[in-house]
Amino acid sequence: MMKAIVITEPGGPEVLQVQEVNLPQIGELDVRIEVKAAGVNRPDVFQRKGNYPAPPGVDPRIPGLEVAGVIVEKGKDVTEWNIGDRVCALVAGGGYAAYVKVFNGHCLPIPDGLSFEEAASLPETVFTVWDNVFRRGQLKAGEHFLVHGGAGGIGSTAIQLGALFGAEVYTTISSSEKADFCQSLGSIKAINYKHQDFENELKFLGVDVILDSIGGSYFEKNINVLNPDGRLIYINAMDGAKVTLNLLKLMQKRIRLTGSTLRARDQEFKQVLRNEIWINVWPKLTAGNFKPNLFQVLPFTDAPEAHRLMEDSSLLGKIVLRF
Ligand SMILES: NC(=O)c1ccc[n+]([C@@H]2O[C@H](COP(=O)([O-])OP(=O)(O)OC[C@H]3O[C@@H](n4cnc5c(N)ncnc54)[C@H](OP(=O)(O)O)[C@@H]3O)[C@@H](O)[C@H]2O)c1
C-alpha cells in the first residue's frame, strides 16, 4: 500500500484527501518511481471538479500529470534506465502519490543542479508547449508569438521557450505583477486584458503564432491580429468552445487553425515528444538558459491548499507538491 491524494468526490479543494491505496503494478516496459515531488496543473482542478475524466487505464481518483523522483523498480525490458536514476516524467494521471508507474519512454533525466521540485514542474508544460508551439505552430526565430495567459504554468513555459528559440513574444495578463513576471521571462510586451484590448494593441504589428486556452470572445480577435500564413493553436476554450469563423479571413490570410489535447495521446506519440524535448529543450535547461518557475512548494498533505492557490488569480508560474 502507499499514500496518495484521492479525489473522494467531485467538488471543491476539500475533496482531496490523503488515503492508502494499492501500489501500482509495473509492466515489462515500465518503471516505478518513488515520487519526491509532483507538479500541479490547471487540468488537475478540472479533474477534481469532475469535468476532465482520466483516460482509460488510468486511476481516475488520483490527479497529477507530472512527477519527479527516483526509479526504484524497472520492468525486465527497460534498458534506458537504472534503479536509483533521478528522473522526471509525464504521466496521464496518478502523480499525487508516493509511487507511480510510468512507461520508460516518458521519463527524462533530471539535470545536475535541478531539485526534484523544479524538475516536477516541467513535463506537462514542456510537452504541451513543444507539441503545440513548435510542432503544430512551427514557430520560427524572428516571428511574433502571442501567448494568452502568460503568467500561468503553460504561459510562462511558452514565453521562455518562444524567446529562447528567437521569437518576439507578446502576452496577455491581468496585473502589473504578472506583466513584470512575463517580461522577466522574455516577453517584450505584456497586455493587461482587464484594461486593454489585445487586438488594438497588436493589429498593426501582426502576430505569426498564437497559443490560446481562452477561446470564446478571443477567437475573432485572434483571427484579426494574425499575419498572413499565421497559426492559431488551441489547447483549451475556457471562455467558450463555440465560435463563429469568417472563412474569407481564413482564406485571405491562409491561416492555419489547429489544437490538441496531450493527455489522451498514445504512448508512442508521447515518446516521440519526449525524445525531441530531450534533444532540443534539455540542453537549454542544463545550460541554465531555461529555468523552472516555482511559485510555491507545499507538502503533499496540503494538496487542497495547492488547488485553492491554483484557482486564485495571483499565481506566477507553477505550484509543486513535495512528498
Ligand atoms: N491541451 C492540452 O494538452 C493542455 C495541457 C495542459 C494544459 N492545458 C490547458 O492550458 C490552460 C493553462 O493551463 P495552466 O496549467 O498553465 O493553468 P494556469 O497556471 O492556471 O494558467 C492559466 C492562465 O490564464 C490566465 N487567464 C485567465 N483568463 C484569461 C483571459 N481571459 N485572458 C488571458 N489570460 C487569462 C490566468 O491568469 P488571470 O486569471 O490572472 O488572467 C492564468 O495565468 C488550461 O486551460 C489547461 O486546461 C491544455
Protein topology:
Layout: E1 2-7, E2 16-21, E3 30-40, H1 42-48, E4 66-74, E5 86-90, E6 99-103, E7 107-109, H2 116-120, H3 123-136, E8 144-148, H4 153-164, E9 168-173, H5 176-185, E10 187-192, H6 198-202, E11 207-212, H7 218-225, E12 226-234, H8 247-253, E13 256-259, H9 267-280, H10 282-286, E14 294-299, H11 303-311, E15 318-322
Parallel strand pairs: 8-9, 8-11, 9-10, 11-12, 12-13, 14-15
Antiparallel strand pairs: 1-2, 3-4, 3-6, 3-15, 4-5, 5-7
Helix pairs in contact: 3-4, 3-9
The structure holds NADP nicotinamide-adenine-dinucleotide phosphate.
NADP nicotinamide-adenine-dinucleotide phosphate is lined by residues 41-43, 124, 128, 148-149, 151-155, 172, 174, 193, 213-214, 235-236, 238, 260-262, 313, 315.
Q: State mean pLDDT (0 to 100 scale).
A: 97
Number of helices: 11
Note the overall shape. globular
- Report helical residue fraction: 25-40%
The end-to-end span amounts to 16 Å
Name of the CATH class of the largest domain: Alpha Beta
One letter per element, helices H and strands E, the order comes to EEEHEEEEHHEHEHEHEHEHEHHEHE
* Low-confidence spans: none
CA-atom Rg in angstroms: 19 Å
User: What small molecules does this complex bind?
Assistant: NADP nicotinamide-adenine-dinucleotide phosphate
- The structural class is alpha/beta
Strand content: 25-35%
- Count the domains: 2
Per DSSP E runs of 2 or more residues, the count of β-strands stands at 15
Please, what is the CATH homologous superfamily of the largest domain? Medium-chain alcohol dehydrogenases, catalytic domain
Main sheet? 7 strands, mixed
CATH topology tier name of the largest domain: Quinone Oxidoreductase, Chain A, domain 1
CATH architecture of the largest domain: Alpha-Beta Complex
